[in-house]
Amino acid sequence: MEKEYYVCTGCGLLCEDIETELEKRAISKVYTACRVGVAHMKENPGTAKFWVEGKNTDEATAIGKAAALLKAAKNPLIFGLDNSTNEAQKKAIELAKKLNATLDDSSSFSFGPLMAALLQKKFKTCSLDEVRDKADVSVFWGADPSDSHPRQLSKFAYFPRGKEKQRGWEEERTAIAIDIRKTHTAKICGNEFYQVPLGGDAEFMEALIAGLSGKLPKTSYKYPPKKLLELANLLKAAKFGVIFIGQDLLYSLETLAPLFRLMDTLNEKAKGDFFLIPLLEAYNMRGFNENLFEETGFVNRVKFEAGSVKHGPEYSVVESLKAKAVDAALIIGSDPLANLPYSIIKELLEIPLITIDPCETLTSKKAQVSIRSGVSGVEAGGSALRIDGVRVAFKPVFESKCPSDEEILFKIMEAF
Amino acid sequence: MDFGSFLSAPELKLKIVTYRDIFQNKALIEDRFGEEYIAKSALIKLDSVDLKNLSLKKGETVILKNSFGKVVVKAEASDSETPHRGIAYMPNSPWSNRLVSTETGGTGVPRFKEIEATVVSAKGEKITELEF
Ligand code: SF4
Question: Which of A307, A363, B5, B99 measures 20 to 30 Å from B114, CA to CA?
Answer without folding.
Answer: A363
